[in-house]
Write a structure and sequence with these properties.
Largest sheet: 8 strands, mixed
Strand order of the largest sheet: 1-2-3-17-9-19-4-7
Shape: globular
Bound molecules: N-oxalylglycine, manganese (II) ion
Oligomer: single chain
Strand content: 25-35%
Order of helices and strands: EEHEHEEEEEEEHHEEEEEHEEEE
Radius of gyration: 20 Å
Length: about 290
């Protein structure tokens, strides 16, 4: 009599076929991963920049935290004063809620239902996060897709003149507004890029894991190339941005409930499409420290 041994589906990486992004199948995020599995996912992350784990419905916040920790220590969610009442307070501090849902007239999370323009997260800090995970709990019937762009490709494919200029310039990254254009608490509104408050980073960085060069643009609004006349800074930044966010450098995640997406924040940018404010979108997010 042969015992029936239930064999675990093996872990497989399937590229999106676009400029970045891959699906990881054969992995249950609720289970403890083996060292081999973690290494395999880490390698795939370096290679594909953005990884998607589908069909993870029913994942608990503790599972999301444990899984995210496989890639580094986690940041705590930002403290947002009194704006975010209730709901989020019951969740572990490593979980940030991204949602348009209102409870008692207050948003339970951030980013609402509008468009979030192209950005990398928190590059206005000296040490921006390494990456993030978003997990879809509720999604709207249409819209709300998240696009990612490959900043290695954006760098490599720059015209020669722009590439050599980029290699010698530094940029100020604006801390005053979030990706939906909302003014952050404690910041003053301004439109003169020379007044921008935020970290200064080289336009071209070498990624610590891949050892490859990539463009670090952060966000367009109020960006300023240190030391240049404003007109010249604006012109160069416009050219760099137009080049970087071309469709051929990007891939869009159209969410399904139970999708989890892990992105590398140092070599990618992302944006989100708007969606019907009457519909609900609820995502749990973790952030891996830089
Ligand atoms: C983020 C972000 C986009 C989205 O969480 O940093 O930009 O699709 N989210 O919710
Ligand atoms: Mn973001």
């Amino acid at each position: 009599m042969n015992a029936i041994i239930k064999k675990k589906e093996s872990l497989t990486i399937v590229s999106s076929g676009a400029a970045l992004g891959a699906d990881v199948t054969g992995l249950d995020m609720r289970e403890e991963l083996s060292a081999e599995e973690i290494e395999c996912v880490r390698d795939a992350w370096v290679k594909h920049l953005v990884l998607r784990f589908r069909d993870q419905e029913g994942l608990g916040v503790e599972d999301l935290i444990r899984f995210s920790r496989s890639f580094g220590g986690l940041d705590r969610r930002p403290v947002r004063g009194t704006l975010y009442g209730g709901a989020q307070n019951d969740l572990p501090l490593e979980i940030n809620v991204i949602s348009n849902i209102m409870v008692d007239g207050k948003p339970i999370g951030s980013l609402g239902s509008g468009e979030a323009e192209w950005h990398a997260d928190m590059t206005y800090n000296e040490r921006p996060p390494k990456g993030s995970m978003l997990y879809a709990v509720e999604i709207p019937p249409a819209g709300g897709g998240t696009s990612f762009a490959n900043m290695y490709l954006a760098y490599e494919s720059l015209p020669a003149d722009l590439k050599s200029r980029a290699n010698e310039l530094k940029c100020v990254h604006d801390a005053s507004r979030n990706s939906t254009g909302e003014l952050r608490q404690g910041f003053e509104a301004h439109t003169d890029p020379r007044k921008t408050v935020g970290a200064i980073h080289p336009l071209v960085i070498t990624h610590p894991d891949s050892h490859q060069k990539c463009l670090l643009l952060g966000r367009r609004r109020n960006a300023y190339l240190v030391g240049l006349p404003v007109e010249e800074s604006e012109e160069l930044l416009d050219r760099l941005w137009e080049h970087a966010v071309q469709a051929r450098h990007s891939w869009t995640q159209e969410w399904k409930i139970g999708d989890a997406v892990l992105w590398d924040n140092r070599c990618t940018m992302h944006r989100r499409n708007a969606f019907d404010p009457e519909s609900r979108r609820l995502m749990y997010r973790t952030q891996i420290a830089g």
